[in-house]
Sequence to fold (202 residues):
Amino acid sequence: MRSSDCVRCEAFPCADTNHAGYYIPDIDLNPAAIRMILISEAAPESPVNHYYAAGDPLFAQTTEQAFNDAGTPVKSIWDILVMGIYLTTAIKCGKTGYAIQTSNIKECSHLLEKELALFPHLKAILLMGDVAIKSLNIIATRAGEEKVIPAGSTYKIRGREYFFQGIRTFPSYLQAGPSFFIEKSKRRMIAEDIKTALAVLD
Fold:
């Protein structure tokens, strides 16, 4: 199965995203083998830096380092996938500015909702950053449920137990992109959150 065959944006209604960066993972995988999803903010400006791009894409570099920081040695994004961990973004197009409008997060959450539904055996969801957190909360409230993650600074709310439709859910910080190498305190917390999430899979 390829996620890109099952989930797609047809109209591209969002005005402040870079549609040229549109990307939904097109790797061939077994959905029954996926036990955890890591959701980061938005697709990179260029698809060549997405998780599954050829070569040494930026998103792969920082994510591999995050898993190594967490005490899980990986050499490629494929090592992470073999562990049953699928990587995607809440926003499927690239950003055009620092912030992403709530209306765009709401619009793209329909795609993320369809993407999540592809994987029947999820045990954990890692929400990397505020956009991913907000997107999952929108999905939950649209289904008539309470927000999964409460409002508040991530450093205050992380470390507690949250669930989305019975799946353990972890709020954390953005690990995809150059800022990962700069903010050392967040890098430490990202490693802690990944390590805790991985323990759920054991």
